[in-house]
Every structure is written in C-alpha cells, then in structure tokens.
Amino acid sequence: MSVSGKKILIAVSGGIAAYKVHFLIRDFIKQGAEVQVIMTPDAEHFVTKLSLATLSKKPVYSDFYDNNGTWNSHVELALWADLMIVAPCTANTLSKMIHGMCDNLVIATYMSAKCPVFIAPAMDLDMYAHPSTKMNLELAESYGHFIIPAENGELASGLIGQGRMAEPATILSTVENYVTDVTVERSLEGKTVLITAGPTYEAIDPVRFIGNHSSGKMGFSLAEEASKRGAKVILISGPSSQTLTDKNVELHKVTSAKEMLAKVFEFYDKIDIGIASAAVADYAPKDIAKEKIKKNDENLTIELVKNPDILKTMGEKKTHQFLVGFALETQNEEENAKGKLQKKNLDMIVLNSLRDEGAGFKNDTNKIKIFTKTEKREFDLKSKGEVAKDILNFVESQLLK
Fold it and tell me: Does residue 88 have a cis bond before it (omega within 30 degrees)?
C-alpha cells in the first residue's frame, strides 16, 4: 500500500552505504511521501547536504545549530514524523541509540521520537556478526523498533558476507507493508480466497511415495496474511509440518494430486481469488502395490502416468475468479513463466528461480518476480511472510483496476 501523505524522517549515519539514501529519498518522494533528512556529523564525509536537500526539497540538518545560530529543534523534528528510518545505521549509531548516548542531533531526535522506528544496519561482516551488535539489534526489537536486516554481498572492505545495507526498494517495501498492516487491515473483507499449499505425495506402495521438497511455508504464509486482511480463507494443503496461528483459516488436508483437485472444486465456484502455490506432482505411479515392494531385484521399474493439471483445470473453468499461479524454474525462467500464464489462463503468475540463493523449497525466505499479461515486477529476497504481503498487495492492486 502507498506511503502517500506520510511524513518520513530519514536519519543518515556515517557509512559508505549512505550513498543509497539518495535512491531511498527519491523512491519515497515518488510515492507521495514527505521526507525530512537529518545526519550525523560523520555522515557528511560520505554524502552532501546539498544532494540530499535537493532530492527531499527540505533543508538537511546535522547539528543543533545552523551557521547563523538558528536552533534546530530535535523535539519538533521527532514529533513531526509519522515514521523514522535510520539508514544506514552504523554499529556506533546503533550502540548510541540503544544505550542512550545522546551526543548528536540524530540521537537526540531519535530519543524524542514517538513514531515507529525502522533500523537498516550497515557495517563490515565481522562487526555485524559481533555479539554486541547482535545484542543491540535484539534490544532494539525489544524497544518495539523494526529491523531491516543487512544483506549479503561485497562490502567496502573487499570482503564478502552479510553487512550491506538493505536495498532502497527493500526498505520502501518494508515500510509500505507496515503501513498496510496498520491502515488496511480489512482490505480483503468480503472476499473468499482459496489457497493450495505444500507438496502432493503419490503412493508407490503402502510405505513409499513420489513427492518433492515443498514445505508449504509460502502457502501457509499467504493464508495467514489473507485472513489478517479480513478474507475468508480456504487452505488446501498437501502433507506439511506447517501449523496455523490464525484459527479463522479453514484448513483441508489432502495427500495426492487427485485428492487436491477434488477438494479445490468443492469450493471453486464460490471463491473470489484462487492462489495455487502447491507443488503438485506431475506424475503418479500407474499401479499402487497393495503390499510393500520387497528389495529382490537389482532394478525396479515403475510406470508413471500424468496427474491431472489442477491449475490448468482452474483456468479452464474460471468465470469470475482472479487466478494466481506459481512457477518454480531452473532455466529460461521468465519465458517459461509467461508461457504458463498464457496457457493456463491465469491473471497473474509468481516466479521463483532455484538459481536465486535463499529462494524456493524449505527456505524461510523467497525471491520472486510477478508477471501479468502487461506487467512485470521484481522483488528482493525477503522472509516468506513479507513475500506474502507483496503478493497480496499486488493482487489487490489488480482487483482495483
């Protein structure tokens, strides 16, 4: 959801990642936000007040007094803001914030703030991994602040590891998701959403099956988020160890692709949105042995037959439903995803690539691209809970068209 009209205070501390703040300011201004920038004295070694003021269209402050003696009130700055973002937040600034070492305008403003505070740490990998940094980040969370974790990559030192400040798009998206949570909690009120999740298991004999590594985390995250937004949610899951915290989600457990197909079409005519995130097995054994197959021969041949294509069938029978598919690819990713969007009569498709570190099965994170027939949008690596918000935000934007 948009941050339009929000008053955002960005505090810049002295690290090389300060250059990214130019892009962050630009992105917030484009979204209709009002931006005020303040800096620590050390930040002026990395970026200039002139460039930041030009982008934010407001004077930038780094001290309690201007050159002409004008007092820059940290209290007024703090009370003006709807949100405060400290980016980059160095180890030094983080420590001062957490332990109340108030020796500059940024810390004084932070300590006067009554609004939500977002912290985007940036430092070298050993500093980021240091026990004191971990403790300070945990304390920051205990204060109710929101941490936007540092990312992996090449650092200013030349080392490679976790410590890079999150990209401006990630910070923007995190703030947008927060605004969504607090202002549009019932945005799917009156809608019925059906979600498929997890793998399917296709029996070979009473103890063995064909399956895949899907954990169901993405589908369960989508179900929880859709329910939080006020939707009636029907979750149809293959075998998964995931659990629901939201008791309003209607959970139906199935095992095979045929069972999932049958369960989907118990509800399909009455839903508004269908999200097929399940990793359905493409093939199943033609014959299921009634007894456990004994290990007698060197080789075992199992004849497989195609499973029903659940998503294609949903597309063929679509009347009023907004239909979302998923594509997990390893090569020609975008081409294959667009082909699936067309062939299966989808309104939108979510692509993840196994080439992207941290994406795909079993991980707590995911990195996606979303395609419609006319649009493409890319997202950074995020937790699956945050990815669920991005997906549903995009669905809602399409429904409003």
Answer: yes
Q: What pTM does this model have?
A: 0.57
Burial call 14-47: b when 16+ CB within 10 Å, e when fewer: bbbbbebbbebbebbeebebbbbbbbbebbbebb
Q: What is the CA radius of gyration of the chain?
A: 25
pLDDT digit string (tens) for 225-247?
Answer: 999 899 999 999 999 999 988 88
CA 138 to chain centre: 21
Q: Which residues, including other chains, have CB under 8 Å from residue 372's CB and lie 6 or more apart?
A: 341, 347, 348, 398
d(CA 369, CA 341): 13
* Nearest-angstrom CA–CA distance, 383 and 393: 15
Q: Which DSSP helix (H) or strand (E) runs through 305? A: strand 304-306
Q: Is 360 left (phi over 0), alpha (psi -120 to 50) or beta?
A: left
Question: Contact 307/258 with Cβ under 8 angstroms?
Answer: yes
| Residues that are catalytic | 212
Q: Comparing C-alpha atoms, which of 322, 346, 326 is closest to residue 396?
A: 322
CA distance 60 to 52: 7
Residue 153: which region, alpha, beta or left (left: phi > 0; alpha: psi -120 to 50)?
left
